[in-house]
From TrEMBL:
Protein name stated in the entry: Molybdopterin-dependent oxidoreductase
Chain segments carrying region Disordered: 165-214
Biased composition (Low complexity): 182-204
Sorted UniProt keywords: Membrane, Transmembrane, Transmembrane helix
Ranges of residues in domain Oxidoreductase molybdopterin-binding: 318-471
Coiled-coil residues: none
TM stretches of this protein: 20-44, 81-100, 107-125, 131-155, 244-261
Classification via PANTHER family: SULFITE OXIDASE, MITOCHONDRIAL, SULFITE REDUCTASE
Record GO biological process: sulfur compound metabolic process
Organism taxonomic ancestry: Bacteria, Bacillati, Actinomycetota, Actinomycetes, Propionibacteriales
One family name in Pfam for this protein: Oxidored_molyb
Originating species: Nocardioides panacis
Leader sequence segment: none
Amino acid sequence: MSDTSHGPERRRGASRHRWILGGAAGLLAGAAAVAVSEALAALLTGVTSPLLAVGNRAVDATPRPLKEFAIRTFGENDKPVLIGGVIVTVALLAVVAGAVGVRRPRVALGAFLVLSVVALVAALTDRSATASPLLCLLPALALMAVGAVALLLLLRALRAPARTAVTSRPSGPTGTAVAEHAPTGRAGSAAPSSPSAPDTVSSPGPVHQVETVEDGKPRILVRDLLPAHVEGDDLPTAFDRRKFLAAAAAVGAVAVAGGAVRQTFGGSAAAGERADITLPKPGAPTPALASGTSLDVPGITPYLTPNKDFYRVDTALSVPDVPIDGYTLRIHGMVDKEIELTYEDLLARRMIEKRITLTCVSNPVGGKYAGNATWLGVPIRDLLEEAGVQDGADAVKSTSADNMTIGTPLGALNDPERDAILAVAMNGEPLPLAHGFPVRMVVPGLYGYVSATKWVVDIEVTRFADFKAYWSTRGYSVKAPIKTAARIDVPKSFAQVRTGDKVPVAGVAWSQDRGIRSVEVRVDGGAWEQATLADQDNIDTWRQWVWMWEPQAGTHQLEVRATDDTGYTQTDKRVPIAPNGSTGWHSVNVTAG
């Protein structure tokens, strides 16, 4: 007697197996589509890949509180996290589309096309792209075409029925005849049950076995081991594995080839040029750093920040590749004479060198988004004087190579005491790519979002009333001088210190364009104690400070505040980053024992 109880179970198992393969097919098709689009973007100048275009749109559309949360939570890793999120989202959607497409290929294709349209819109509206709209669309169109073709190819292979064979053979000592429809083997031919198996004929359908038993009475056993179709659907349970594997191999090869092209041609042209640059000598070199400007306290922030440790906060998901070959800086707007300068023109002009501390408006109380470096560059006021600023102008709108716009008060750029520069070097070497190579703005005393344009290619003299810069349309103030602040570097919060020791409490304080007059520390809300300041290099850099503490046993709160050279002492009132920088005293909790 035949056991037919495994039929539904086999069908369910086959269905689950097909869903898994469908998800894998969707993922593979998505990988091929993304790889080809990335390769094409790498081959075209001024074109953003669909992944980056979607990410850029996400950055631009992110509400300010969410942006601040991302910086606060992920720090300078916010960009890799966002790109990773886009990739994971695309991968998950591709898996779902493939799994659904096993039974509903039109739905899967429709979902894939919707995703492609999102990529097309993002590419067409991407502010960082500089090529023509048609060129900008090509990678997204390639993503759509490759993805659709690959997905349909794989789904078609999954839906193709396996070939079966009709076999007749004798069945043992009684001379019984057996006729059966059997599934073909891996090569598509029937697997013989005996060395003398006869010829086979392709035939889809369920497996039947007809046999006679010893009593001579014929009996038909319909085992239904491998039904050709799932009940209620036109999907074959057995599919042609060879056809699917061949399709998967072809799509995988496309993905690998696209990745190889992206890896080969996606490098930075600017990186190679940067290595060959010989920097000019400044006409006004900065004085040598006096020994008293740096304190010998373990754990304190170094007076000069190495380039590799300098903070980076910007909206560029991918660092713009701006070769010096073909680079031009345009100065125009409310000027008597428009100026265009090449990189070589800038290097040939009068250079000054100065140590300047930069601070990001996203820096929370006690945060790390501040850094001090030696900058070499052309005084901006020299260029503005040469261009001839017209009456009524009060602002400069600067634009980066990726079309970020920043508005800066004209007075700050023309101030002879401030030394705003177009920097070409940082700490004795050409600007790092991530910090604005080949040219960036550096303006002492102003938060970066209103002054520190990286990869700058355009300077327009204008009026604040006539334009809105990127961040001023997102809830930030039009003007933003850096606020006086102090930070405790050591001991760290929740540190353990020993009673009976003299514990150094140390850190940095800054008030660019004004200078630091004093720093005070207090313990557990007690009296303020004067800290010892390092020598002041110039008013545009931070100052290190230290206060020696003899702790008593227990848990204590240490607080710090600074007073600038105007006599202003920073407030204890905590305000958020927006609209123009946080305020409040930095504090740490430590335990002495």
